[in-house]
């Protein structure tokens, strides 16, 4: 189990908590109060045997959340600055945006607002992960859901940020579509790589969190 393999790490973290929850759901409640020769209940033994797994899971979650927090905070800063310093500036007589009546300007404003909203939501989700108590049951529902929402909104904020950038370039460089497209393609390479890496992690977490439970329930009840 290594932090360098986030997909395997997440499956082990979620699997340990999931097994404990499933065992508790199928055994008689009276059995949960039994103690062994050392006076320990099943839950206490489970917690003790998975102590290292919880620690490794906490480290992995914090590494991912910290990295994504930096990215989300950067997007929030950029989008907030873009909303203040709009392309084309304002008219001197009315102080209204110069390109207020242009359709591409409305695209710029809407995408900027959406990117700011998604990035802020992502930032809050990752803050929630960093400040979590990291109990065993948190790895079953709370932490995976926060991570899924955080990654989803982060990817959406990146997508809307690129739309904002494209709209801004079309406003600043009217009639120079070839130059704008070339700039967008070059700038989109690192963004695409980042999105692809995070998207793989997001898909893996969704499958591990939801698909495995659905399949297990179908097998359990024979439906």
From TrEMBL:
Pfam families: PGG. Keywords: Membrane, Transmembrane, Transmembrane helix. The chain crosses the membrane at residues 63-84, 104-127, 148-173, 179-203. Residues 59-171 form the PGG domain. It comes from the Eukaryota. One of its GO terms (cellular component) is membrane. PANTHER family: ANKYRIN REPEAT PROTEIN, CASKIN. This is PGG domain-containing protein.
